[in-house]
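Format notes (please read before filing issues)

Several people have asked whether sequences and structure tokens are stored in separate files. They are not. Every record keeps both together, in the order shown below: the sequence lines, then the token lines. Line labels are part of the format and must not be stripped during preprocessing.
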Amino acid sequence: DQLQVACDRANQRLHAHFALLAWPFAIEQDLVLDFDGDHDNSTVLSLIDILKKDATRDKLNLSLAHSRELTSHHIKQVADGLPPSLKDLELSFAGCAQLDDVSLQAFAGKFPSSMTRLHINLMGCPDISNRG
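Then the structure lines:
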């Protein structure tokens, strides 16, 4: 049924929108993998899974700039959540002092084949070199 498909897509998009808005808070509170925080394995609310399920999303802009808590572990979570139909990706990790060249390796093999544009802002990340 076309109406059901359209409603499912709209719900996926809306859920992903809220997941992206919640992502910085979730990093601070270590809730990216289980956002509701009840640690009940039967109903895990993973921001990674929610974002990845937004199957029609072709553009993503996420800023985690100036996050003191942001580590390589969190970069991997972002990479794991990239939607499969993504074409345009813009990320900002500006001023995230805990990141280094190894942090960026989390994206290896994670970019969808559909991607045509990538922009990552790493200004103010002192441990990231041109090798990263």
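For reference, the curators noted about this record: Helices lie at 2-29, 47-52, 72-80, 101-104. The longest strand covers residues 59-63.
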